[in-house]
Write the structure tokens for this entry.
Amino acid sequence: MSTKYIFITGGVVSSLGKGIVAASLAKLLKAMGLSVTVQKFDPYINIDPGTLNPYEHGECFVTDDGAETDLDLGHYERFLGVHTSKANNVTAGRIYYTVITKEREGAYLGKTVQIIPHITDEIKRSIFLLGQDGKYDVIITEIGGTVGDMESHPFLEAVRQLQWELPDEDALSIHLTLVPYLSAAKEIKTKPTQHSVQMLQQIGVKPDVIICRTEHSLNEDVRRKVALFCNVKLGHVIQSLDAWSIYEVPLNLQKEHLDELVVRKLKIDNYQRPDLEKWCKVLSDLKNADKVVNIALVGKYVALQDAYKSILESFVHAGAAMHCKVKVHSILSELITYENASEKLQGIDGVLVAPGFGERGLEGKVHAIHYCRENGVPFFGICLGMQMAVVEFARNVLGMADAASTEVNPHTTHPVIDMMEDQKKTTTKGGTMRLGAYQCCLEKDSLAEKIYGCELISERHRHRYEFNSLYQEAFQKAGMVCTGHNPDTGLVEVVEIPSHPFFIGVQFHPEYKSTPENPQPLFCSFVSAAMKYAAREKK
Ligand code: GLN
């Protein structure tokens, strides 16, 4: 079978959940025994989202191969249970950069370099690159942005060309739109969808399927109207009702027969009956969780849900695994002081201090950690959260009053967190951190080793600073032990306080690898520790 290409575009408004729809369709096809991957095109000029503030663009997701990518790749991995790579996220910036670099190298000598064909060719090349070794039966490409945006144009033009170039049974175009409900008129309106499809057709892209995001079920009349005016078959109008969990979306789309429609149109016949048993079990565990724990997420980007997307999803997965509803309370770290920490963390069963960069809110993180350490509250620090646990311990246990990370205080007399040696040489900011998967050796009988159930793990990283090994012994003697090291460089990756009920900080980002079907063990153990803490409180 030749590789099949599915293109997903979005219309009317942004934030309709194209990423979730792409991931859900991929999940359905994978459950039918097909090999699938999902790719995202982002129409902005940054080479990758690594240099973007999370408030601009949500979390930056990191792949095993060290690419800083759009958070939708996190959805793809969580739904599909397979790892993505650099090739799964391409920005307009990367496309233009490649073309301009080639131009300087003389690859187009004598030619005027233009959007068509050079930019569109490069876009198509990035799509085919994923399918080149025949690894995938289906490649789903999500085009970021909304139809009508100026930046998306070259990507849509590339889709138009591919629809024309590929055999009919090898390409499918899906358009996701909003079908709003006007409560005053008690009516579902299809006009914005009609306009969006008109705009798409002006570019020359013909949708085969329209997926309508809607708060209310679409009746036959509405479906007929969308089908007629958007030029698709009646059965090709699919509703995507607001779901109680994003993980329910594949099942909702299956009820609408999207999976059958796709294999029929793409003439795929080597598929099996979809096996979604494990997925459904996670959903029912999630729904039927009878206990509740309250977790504080202490960070500086708490006003935007998407900023800590993978962490929030990891808690959903861990909750399902532990049959417990995890209520995450976001607390802005800059509001926490030594005096108010106990009040701010009242009723909290566990504290996660989030990753981050820069000075804002750092002291609040230190106070929150201080409170957890002294009061036996389960603590879990990720990256900057781990680094601040080290700073807190240095200041309040080892008496190093000005201990700090040199990221914020280069003149401290106790640089307990310092820049990694090879980082000192880097002068540019984009893609230059320590990125991607690295192995880590866990000390036998440490909390980390017990949690993972093995001594050698691999997790993803995104940082420039590290625990300063000169201080290891002093920390160890005072009760904070380093229980995870990189086997090649010796870098400290995990710290723990064995005398505390649950106190662990990790330099890596375990949240990137958690999936509903394979919840991350650190998150599960943290939730379990929080459940114990909650039960203890009640006694
Ligand atoms: N700012 C810290 C560093 O660069 C932590 C990074 C993070 O939390 N991802 O090391």
Remarks:
- The CA atoms of residues 61 and 74 lie 6 Å apart.
- The longest strand covers residues 291-299.
